[in-house]
Amino acid sequence: MKKYIKNSIIIASCALVFSACDDNAWNDKLDGFEENGYTDVKTIEYTLTDADYSAIASNSVNQALAGEDKAAALKAVGTNKYFSPEITAREYVPAFLDSNKFPYFTLDNGSAVKLTYKTSADMPEEIAQIAGADSYEVTEDDYKFIWGDEEKYVESFAPSKPAAQGGVKILNDQFPDAEEGDTYIVTYKTSAQEPVFGSSDPQPEEFKMSEVIGGLSKGDNAEISGIITALCTRGYILTDKSGSILVYVGTSFDAKSHPIGSQVKVAGTISSFNFGLQVDGSSMTEQIVGSQSYTYPAAPVYSSDDIAAANSRTTDEAAVYCQFTGKTKISGSYINVEFEDNESVQGSIYYPTEEIKAKLADGEVQTFTGYFTAISSKGKYFNLVATDVKTASMNSPKGAPRAASVVVPTTVENCVCRFDGKTWRLQSKFQCLNPDDYAAMGQSYGNLSAPDTYLPSYLKVTHPYAQADDAQLVVYRYYSSGSTVWRCDEYIFDGSEWKLYNGVVEEVAQFVRTNGHWMYDPNVTINLPAIRNDEFITAFYQACTDWVFENIDKPLGSTDIKSGMYYVTSYGNNEYYAGTSAYYNNVDLRAAKARDQYPAGYEGMTDEEVVALMKSRCANEVMPGALAALYPDAVPVEGLDVIYTLNFVVFDGASSNHTIRFKVTAPATFTFLDCTWDTPAE
């Protein structure tokens, strides 16, 4: 990420630090510095977190400000975690600072926050397009629509029904009122195998299912002929005419080689685990003899009380097909389901496949269908080998059976579709990560939390012949702050590596609390009372002295390395080029002291001329140089004059208070405007 703002020593923003100081004892000693009387006035530095960007996007005041025209752009701020030219920090941060989401929202008027945030300077339009996109998962009814038959269909696209055409057809059917620019990320299944629709008889004559599972007990030696009806990463559910059982293979199991609908003959010993019967895969023989369609029965709907009752069993039993609804809870490698009406039990999804993981949504209410196989943790967890997961808004009627269909090996894929005003079109310029891609990266939950760690390597694999300056827009599921969203990043190949480029830069801006509300205010006031040994005030005047030492030309003919040394005292903490003193923390305009320090520098000049020259140097050279060193992030703001105001003390035999102002005319460039020492005394 580019970073326009360099980090350097800042005097804790002497900006407002002293005008907002809690200890105002020095005001009693200096005329012109009024006591503010605030009870909780502070100047702080704060960097927006990922959660803050989400809070800004969901803030009701901001949503009203954005309206319909900028609603998608505001949503993108919460997704991308940076601002954009449409949604600027200047306009949309104040409502966040006023809300209780901001840790310092109770500070009093006069407080200031120096805010560091990310914004897009040159973001590709496509990135914002994805951030504002919605999601759509192709349903079973959609596949029926594509295949044009209620019975002869597969829950997948296939060579004769390609996703590029079918997806557009589905979206045109589902969203007849779409508007130009609407974008969806579509999740679907596809197969390289063409389905063959034969007899509707789900039990071909050459394969006869057994009827033994329902009568099995631990220790039996059994021969089972059945259909694979569910998968997990440790084995599969085998179903015959009398029931279902878990065939436990272990970590070596390859789910892709055992598609649902496979006809399997198994011979082995029946064991048990946590009161669930299973075929011991370590000693079994297995033969896959074919495949067929399978119709799931109506799934009995379990309440939390039903689950509690099932978890109280004390005998070994076969798997039971069922369905329940609860809130998904993902914690590390554990995937549990919580029930609001009964906290004593939880569902537990048993070693889910990547296809099932892709459907999980942490914190969402979802409906799970599958096979109850065992209990764990003394009856607390109800272990389910899932066959399907749906969010509450997409559920079919509870217990409804799935229509018969031919089963083919499938993969889950994603694509981007956009409405051009007439029809939906596949956006081939985007490269979407799919469940298999996350699995190859070792990601368990089908998302990335550190995308730049994985995507460069991913692109190297998928684009082995990339040329310098080739670009790719990668769409992926991004996990941050407990939620998962679609996100897009652009990567550019530099000839050897893929580099992230999304036009995001880091900026700093000041917001000030005025009349009970925070508002953008780039102007800065720096109060510099003559308090000796004050860390912040001393830092400012030391920066002035250092600037003189480093920047003033050496005298004609001198061989010394630095000429500023002639104006700087031997202690190195004050100078008489302009009179700034980090010892007394003031500006010393005594002509005699200037001559004592460097006689040649003021030879032939009257006292008035010496003082006038020192004032000019202070206003046009020294203070601007110190400000540039201490405020490198100061930049002009379009439509506003950015003014830095310094209240300081002059000593010329007696102390007097003065105000000097500078305008920011370029990055870290301060141009003198005026000073009260030029105002005639009344």
Question: Could you walk me through the main structural features you see in this protein, from its secondary elements to its overall organization?
Answer:
With 682 residues, this protein is α+β, with helices and mostly antiparallel strands. It has six domains: 121 residues, no CATH class; 89 residues, no CATH class; 79 residues, Bacterial OB-fold (OB fold (Dihydrolipoamide Acetyltransferase, E2P)); 91 residues, Nucleic acid-binding proteins (OB fold (Dihydrolipoamide Acetyltransferase, E2P), Beta Barrel), CATH 2.40.50.140; 74 residues, no CATH class; 154 residues, no CATH class. 21% of the residues lie in helices and 31% in strands. The protein has 15 helices and 30 strands. Strands 25, 26, 27, 28, 29 and 30 form a six-stranded mixed sheet that branches. Helix 2 packs antiparallel against helix 4 and helix 4 crosses helix 6. The protein is elongated. The N terminus is likely disordered.
Can you give me a brief rundown of this structure?
By secondary structure, the protein is of the alpha+beta class. 21% of the residues lie in helices and 31% in strands. The protein has 15 helices and 30 strands.
Record the SSE blueprint.
Blueprint: E1 2-3, H1 14-17, E2 43-47, H2 50-58, H3 60-66, H4 71-80, H5 89-98, E3 112-120, H6 125-131, E4 134-137, H7 140-147, H8 163-174, E5 183-190, E6 221-232, E7 235-240, E8 243-248, E9 262-273, E10 276-280, E11 285-291, H9 304-310, E12 320-331, E13 334-338, E14 346-349, H10 354-357, E15 365-376, E16 381-391, E17 411-419, E18 424-426, E19 430-432, H11 435-440, H12 451-462, E20 471-480, E21 483-493, E22 498-500, E23 504-514, E24 517-520, E25 524-528, H13 535-551, E26 580-581, E27 586-588, H14 591-597, H15 607-630, E28 643-651, E29 655-666, E30 669-675
Parallel strand pairs: 1-23, 2-3, 4-5, 8-10, 14-16, 19-20, 25-28, 27-28
Antiparallel strand pairs: 3-23, 5-17, 6-7, 6-9, 7-8, 9-10, 9-11, 12-13, 12-15, 13-14, 15-16, 17-18, 20-21, 21-22, 23-24, 26-27, 28-29, 29-30
